[in-house]
Write a structure and sequence with these properties.
FAD/NAD(P)-binding domain, binds nicotinamide-adenine-dinucleotide, 3 domains, about 30% helix, 7-stranded mixed beta sheet
């Protein structure tokens, strides 16, 4: 193999494989080095397998609870092994798709663990490769807090729980963030007894408190929440915590640890080549350049916006910079989604951020039932749309939705914020009717 490349990418996840495709398409001779599976955590052990299993949970729920819709299906049961097989098949299909795309673009892929020799040479499987440009896209892994007993065999991370061979009878989720809520939703819908133990006074601290409270209210039907509860130790299958009422315990067959993720930056010799890196990630500027010329970083390993869609974009910005194109990473309109059942989705500034920054804003909120389509499909299930505008300029600053499958419409709000639309601009747009997206249009007319 010719060991000279224009670009070497460490990591074949969303940050890496997408950048490889863009770079190779533009004519750069590109090598991707991946130590596990192409597609990274998102495709193999995160976004895709969870969405596939959540689809099974949704079907199960609909089959069981649709009498109001005139559909009565007695004796509905779940076959976990089939749901599991479907997950494996979906992941495999997408992974083959990524490999095929890279092959079509003539990207070389090597399986192995890369290590820097110097800033333009990496070694993998005992072989050295040199290059003018390097992109570090090594992702993140679950954080394990120093709680006594956290290494108990019944404590799983999001990685191991995706391989579980049955629906656990009971589950304790430590950390009521995005990952915790997805799994709480999944397993509670499938019949597990689920308790979420969250250290802060409310779940998903990145959401506005009204969005988080509504989401929690919806989930409380099937999930118990211990809020403001600090986990003190884990003894086998029992979690000890303390909250405002004093010490307490909760036991379960399985414990999920979902208290955050941390950048993967160790074991590659990053410090040895003089890279500006800390446990918080590789330091990058808005062009995804590191402190070393010829070395860029993208995705979770930067510690900024740990989301697959942010990683894609960061990789593209890095490649644009390598090609001499003017582009920069912007963080003001990155959609965020909680894929629980129901979903919450938001983009732009939250109400709490506006207050903290002392910004003068006007906020309007409408129940989801203002959308005819929502009413037809979800009836009186609570949900709302909330829009935040700048009081002076009338520019759209934030859109936050909770209810149904609102993840599918939030990109539209992101486009409006990115394009700096004002209230009057949005009013002139035609939204398809009847769709849930009309909640944004309805709320805009409240200003
Ligand atoms: P998170 O940061 O979203 O949530 C972690 C939660 O754990 C927080 O609410 C925090 O207060 C709580 N916590 C921390 N220590 C605790 C303790 N000792 N006891 C009880 N609670 C504790 O982290 P996550 O859910 O693990 O997700 C990790 C990363 O992966 C996030 O950065 C997220 O953006 C990304 N991710 C995103 C999605 C999505 O967007 N849908 C899905 C999966 C992962």
């Amino acid at each position: 193999m010719n060991s000279e490349f224009d670009l070497i990418i460490l990591g074949g996840g969303p940050g890496g494989y997408n950048a490889a495709e863009r770079a190779a398409h533009a004519g750069l001779k590109t090598l991707v080095i991946e130590k596990e599976d192409l597609g990274g955590v998102c495709l193999n052990r995160g976004c895709i397998p969870t969405k596939t299993l959540l689809a099974s949970a949704k079907h199960f729920h609909i089959a069981k609870d649709s009498a109001d819709f005139g559909v009565v299906a007695p004796n509905v049961s779940l076959d976990w092994s089939r749901a599991f097989k479907r997950k494996v098949k979906t992941v495999r299909a997408l992974r083959s798709g990524v490999a095929a795309k890279l092959k079509k673009n003539k990207v070389t892929v090597i399986e192995g663990e890369a290590r820097f020799i110097d800033r333009s040479t990496v070694e993998v499987n005992g072989e050295r490769f040199s290059t003018a440009k390097i992109l570090i896209a090594t992702g993140s892994k679950p954080s394990i807090p120093p709680i006594p007993g956290a290494d108990s065999p019944s404590v799983l991370t999001s990685r191991e729980i995706l391989d579980i061979d049955h629906v656990p009878e009971s589950l304790v989720v430590i950390g009521g963030g995005v990952i915790g809520l997805e799994f709480a939703s999944l397993f509670s819908t499938l019949g597990s007894r689920v308790t979420v133990v969250e250290m802060l006074p409310e779940i998903v601290p990145s959401l506005d408190s009204d969005v988080a409270a509504l989401l929690r209210g919806r989930l409380e039907k099937d999930v118990a929440f211990k809020l403001g509860a600090r986990v003190e130790k884990i003894d086998g299958t029992t979690v000890s915590y303390s909250d405002s009422e004093g010490p307490g315990t909760v036991g379960a067959e399985v414990i999920l640890m979902s208290v955050g993720r941390r950048p993967v930056v160790e074991g590659m010799g990053l410090e040895d080549i003089g890279l500006d890196v800390s446990p918080k990630g590789v330091a990058v500027d808005e062009k995804m350049r590191t402190n070393l010329p010829g070395v860029w970083a993208a995705g979770d390993c930067t510690g900024k916006s740990l989301l697959a869609h942010s990683a894609y974009r960061m990789g593209e910005v890095a490649v644009a910079d390598m090609l001499g194109k003017d582009d920069r990473m912007r963080y003001n309109a990155i959609p965020s989604v909680v894929y629980s059942l129901p979903e919450a989705a938001g983009v732009g500034i939250t109400e709490a951020e506006a207050v903290k920054a002392g910004r003068e804003v006007v906020i309007k909120k409408l129940p989801m039932q203002y959308s005819g389509r929502y009413l037809a499909e979800f009836g009186q299930e609570p949900g709302f749309g909330k829009v935040i505008i700048d009081a002076k300029t009338q520019a759209l600053l934030g859109v936050h939705l909770v209810g149904g499958t609102c993840s599918e419409i939030i990109w539209g709000a992101a486009a409006l914020i990115e394009a700096e639309f004002r209230v009057d601009d949005v009013r002139e747009l035609i939204f398809p009717h009847p769709t849930v997206s009309e909640i944004i249009r309805e709320t805009i007319w409240e200003f």
